UniProtKB/TrEMBL annotation:
Residues 53-108 form the Peptidoglycan binding-like domain. The keyword NADP does not apply. Residues 1-28 form the signal peptide. Keywords: Signal. Pfam families: PG_binding_1. InterPro entries: Peptidoglycan-bd-like, PGBD-like_sf, PGBDSf. Gene3D superfamilies: PGBD-like superfamily/PGBD. It comes from the Bacteria. The keyword Signal applies. This is Peptidoglycan-binding protein.
Amino acid sequence: MRQHRLATLGAALCTTAALGLAVPPVAAAVPHQCSYLSSASRPAVTFGDTGVGVKQAQCLSNAWGGEPPKLTLDGVYDSVMLKKIEWIQGCHGLPASGIIEDRTWQVLYHPALDCYNPYPA
């Protein structure tokens, strides 16, 4: 009986470890590198906006590696930034609205390492 419990426990631990490895890791943006705005302050930001909220979002979006372009930290929400934000939202299953609100801020602060949506040409 005791051996059966140990075998069951061992199998459960192995399964848990294997599942843990299957979960894609998340790259956390380093907030102190993007210090234009407090991480507690997350204003709604949309195309055409300017200011420190936009600059913070630009900086955080640059933590994404790979094909997406790095944005210039100029505090202007232009068409290049709109395209990138919509892509980031799609990577996380969010509506690709281009509006940076609570859920989008969350993914900007905690970007995925990989996105299986190709970046639009």
